[in-house]
Specification:
Length: 158
């Protein structure tokens, strides 16, 4: 992913991970026929053998899940630390932010142990706990997807 403003680029994996961990929402972009489809979602994130991986969950039915199963390839975006910078002129206004954008492939997890591990990663993003239990009945009704990142770039504007 080529970036025009290289002075704003965040290229170190550790720095990108810090930005991701400061975010509370990932936006997933898919193709829905002739139109793009973008959906904000809760997520879990980790690196597995150096590979960036996101985990997403959903109910077992619906438009989003249908597209996830059909398209598999997606784009994504996360951003945080947004702050308006007021200028003396209209062109001097700016926005401070940190963001990550990329693309990857969605894989549906069907094994109960894999789903449980992924849901624990998601829950640890939003709580101080990572040892959650999920009843088998709940796992059967919950779709869990792993987003294997193929390309990702970071950007930071102070």
């Amino acid at each position: 992913m080529e970036m025009r403003r290289k002075d704003l680029a965040v290229t170190q994996p550790e720095a990108m991970d810090q930005i991701i961990c400061a975010c509370d929402c990932i936006r997933i972009a898919l193709t829905d026929g002739d139109y793009p489809y973008i959906i904000p979602m809760n997520f879990g994130y980790q690196r597995v053998d150096g590979q960036a991986v996101f985990y997403l969950h959903s109910a077992e039915e619906g438009h989003k899940v249908s597209l996830f199963r059909k398209e598999q390839r997606c784009g994504f975006e996360l951003d945080t630390h947004r702050q308006l910078k007021i200028g003396a002129t209209a062109c001097a206004f700016s926005m401070a932010y940190e963001s990550i954008a990329g693309n990857g492939d969605l894989v549906e997890l069907t094994d109960s142990a894999e789903k449980t591990a992924a849901l624990r990663v998601i829950m640890s993003t939003y709580s101080d706990q990572s040892d959650w239990d999920f009843p088998e009945e709940t796992l059967k009704k919950t779709c869990v997807f792993r987003l294997n990142v193929q390309a990702m770039s970071g950007r930071k504007h102070d």
